[in-house]
Every structure is written in structure tokens, then in C-alpha cells.
Design brief:
single chain; mainly alpha; elongated
Length: 113
């Protein structure tokens, strides 16, 4: 019997690429498009949050008489960088998985023509 963490990973299918066995119908194609668009929206949310943190951090660093807030400004700049890195990694990971799912579909449609 698998350890609990392995069973959970298997149930959630973490780290496995998408796969398909049957020919996809229109509903499946539309679901893939919705997933792609949701991935782009999520990436834009990460970028927007990072920009807000960047602007806030710069503003806090520009305050002259409030030295206690300087560390918050630096922390905000660091968090902005973390948001950009995490958002980019998540975006490229899902994009790569979707592309691996799309490529066999495109070759199927080329064969049918």
C-alpha cells in the first residue's frame, strides 16, 4: 500500500501531465480554451499584485521622516519579486501542460483532412 502522501498525490494528479485517450468533442475543446484564458487571467493578477507591491514599496522608501517603515518598503519590494517569479512559474507550467495536450489534437485534425 502506498504511503498517505503518495495516495493524495495520486488522487490529485499532482505533477502528471494532462492526457487524453478519446477523441475530444467540442465541449472538451471549449474547456481547454477556458483553462488557457483562466491561466492568462491568473498570471495578470499576479503581475497586478506585484506592481501594487512595487509601487507601495517605493512609496514607503521615499518617506523621509518615517524610518520605521523602511523595512516594510524593502519587504514589499521582495514580495513583488516573489509574486512575479511564482506567477511566471505557474503560468509557464500550465501553458506547457496545455501545449502537450493540444499538440496531439492538432496532429489528429491534420490527419483527418
Amino acid at each position: 500500500m502506498l504511503p498517505r502522501s503518495e495516495r493524495i498525490r495520486e488522487m490529485l494528479r499532482i505533477g502528471r501531465p494532462f492526457s487524453h485517450r478519446d477523441k475530444l468533442i467540442l465541449r472538451d475543446h471549449l474547456a481547454l480554451e477556458r483553462t488557457r484564458l483562466a491561466n492568462e487571467r491568473t498570471f495578470m493578477a499576479y503581475v497586478r499584485s506585484a506592481l501594487y507591491l512595487l509601487i507601495g514599496g517605493i512609496a514607503l522608501l521615499k518617506l523621509k521622516n518615517h524610518g520605521d517603515l523602511e523595512w516594510i518598503g524593502y519587504a514589499s519590494l521582495g514580495l513583488a519579486l516573489v509574486f512575479i517569479v511564482v506567477g511566471s512559474l505557474r503560468f509557464t507550467n500550465l501553458k506547457r501542460q496545455l501545449r502537450s495536450y493540444y499538440d496531439p489534437l492538432e496532429s489528429e485534425t491534420d490527419d483527418e483532412e
